[in-house]
Amino acid sequence: MSDCKIMKIEIYNAIVEDFNKLSSFSRKAENELKKKYKHLPPSTLGSIISLLVQRAMKQSYRKSPVISSKYHDLYEELMTDKSKGNVIMKLSDSQGISPALFARSLLQNVYSDSTMAKKCIKDTTLIEDKDLAYQVYLGIMNDNQYGPYADIIKQSIGLEYELRLERELRLMNITFSDENILRSRGYDKTPDFKLDVPIAIDGFIVNWVESKALFGDEENHSGYLKEQLSCYWNRFGPGLVIYWFGYLETLNSTPEVNNMFILRTSFPEKSSITQYRIDL
């Protein structure tokens, strides 16, 4: 049976095309996209949108005193309006960047010390101007794809799925060493779980399992392959990578898949797993 989370390239390209037509990065714009693709799992589409927002911000954002000054002037002008409302949300929409990123650039004009600006993004109570503090807070809390609030959400989801995987391994009596144990042994780059005894999944030998609580497309998978997965394979042999929110079908045709590791969108059923035992 085919996995509905393994996405055809045509569907993915259509999502990217529609995303590029968005005039803002607000939740309202995101919800419009979700309505069009309501046949997809919300976690899958949400993860794709998150990845696209992150990339768009990296491409469009430039750390520049001129831009920061411009944003500050726009902010000051709009703050004179008595019915100003959520100023940063309005300005981020008009400038085509995320609210948290607009707030970050704005604070870089307020504080000459970039370290202080970063601290204020994470803790708005440090901002002396109470109106600015409130507006920055609103901008951050209304940005679920970029900034500290979004980072906390992603970290929490990542941990949730790691714990889910750990629970499934324990239920199947598969023993393992986690990242903390491996680091205590001197490994600098470690998978989430190194199996104490290899298992076979549909005949493929698996020595380690890596949990990715996101959608796997070619760009982020290529980054993981270079920075993490190749290292795991060199040190521990072949393994299993789980993209919990799905992955692009084209990844299955890359040379490393079924050689260095296999891809799944969940931990396999017990019926497809062969466990080995060491005779002492």
TrEMBL record:
Query: Which locations, inside or outside the cell, does it occupy?
Result: Cytoplasm; Nucleus
GO CC terms of this entry? cytoplasm; nucleus
Q: Which InterPro entries match?
A: CDIN1
| Keyword tags | Cytoplasm, Nucleus
Q: Specify the superkingdom.
A: Eukaryota
Q: Does the keyword field hold Transferase?
A: no
The protein's matches in PANTHER family, at most eight in alphabetical order, are given as:
CDAN1-INTERACTING NUCLEASE 1, SIMILAR TO CDNA SEQUENCE BC052040
Its protein name is CDAN1-interacting nuclease 1
What gene is it encoded by? LOC113519665
